[in-house]
Amino acid sequence: MAPPPPHLDPSELGNKDYWQTTYTNDLTTHTENPANTGTTWFTTSNASPLTLAYLLTLTPPLSKPTTTFLDLGTGNGEMLFLLRSSGGFTGKMLGIDYSPASVELATRVARQRGYNNTDEDVRFREWDILREPTVENGWTEGDFDVVLDKGTFDAISLNEETDGRGRRVCEGYKDRIIGMVKVGGRFLLTSCNWTESELREWFEGKDEDGSKGGFEFEGRVEYPKFKFGGREGQSVYGVCFRRV
After folding, report:
1. Engineering a disulfide at 24: which of 69, 81, 101, 217 sits with its beta carbon 3.0 to 4.6 angstroms away?
2. Which of 188, 173, 90 has its CA nearest to residue 134?
3. 69-72 and 181-191: which strand pairing?
4. What does the alpha-carbon distance between residue 103 and residue 97 come to, in Å, rounded to a whole number?
5. Nearest partner of 189 among 40, 6, 42, judged by Cα
6. Would you give per-residue pLDDT tens digits along the chain (244 residues)?
7. Is 178 in a helix, a strand, or coil?
8. What is the 3-state secondary structure (H, E, C) of 105-146?
């Protein structure tokens, strides 16, 4: 297996305490002003609407009544609410986050918007993707047609912790993700820290022991590009992989 791209320098944005503080502050703000639903990643890049637009172009089309979604690092739950309200998807949706304050915020916003936090609705649960088993109240590995990551791998890549094998924890992320996606399902990743080619290095190919299959590149979410010094680039990348 090829080595991963060079690691990012650690940052406070990779620490759980940072996000717990962020969403605790957002909870306070939301309590004072319910119209303010807190922090949404990549708002200035229009990432959530562009992600939805991409999903609606897939062939064959995703089934609106039955497609299931898992949102990793759900934050305030905004992506799942958009899939419901603007995308017309009505299947099972689960948002998970390791920050209890994030889950509380998303749950409050969900109630405000008329969702009941049940298995048949949009629900939110506290879960640490790298450290806890992937079974919870009937949710098992391979349950989801679409798994979304909007900045979560970015944050994990900024975490300086190592696993039991001495690797940076981001190196174990792919093996956890593969098992959550149905065979033939999608993993759609949004990043401002990694380029498309780097994301493909991280995620394309089989899992470490080959037991769960792997990911193949399917397509990209198109973001605005800029030119500087005669070269073209962009600040946000969205890459879609299919589990094979």
Report:
1. 101
2. 173
3. unpaired
4. 6
5. 42
6. 567 789 999 999 999 999 999 999 999 999 999 999 998 888 888 999 999 999 999 999 999 999 999 999 999 999 999 999 999 999 999 999 999 999 999 999 999 999 987 767 899 999 998 888 765 555 556 689 999 999 999 999 999 999 999 999 999 999 989 989 999 999 999 999 999 999 999 999 988 777 778 999 999 999 988 777 667 778 899 999 999 9
7. helix
8. HHHHHHHHCCCCCCCCCEEEEECCCCCCCCCECCECCCCEEE
- Can you name the residues that pair with 215 across neighbouring β-strands? 205, 243
Distance from C-alpha of 128 to C-alpha of 182, rounded to nearest angstrom:
20
Query: What are the residues facing 96 on neighbouring strands?
Result: 72, 125
Q: What is the SS3 assignment for 23-83?
A: HHHHHHHHHHCCCCCCCCCCHHHCHHHHHHHHHCCCCCCCCCCCCCEEEECCCCCHHHHHH
Q: The tokens 């190196």 sit on which residue?
A: 171
The answer to whether 68 and 146 are in contact (CB under 8 A) is yes
Amino acid symbol at 233: G
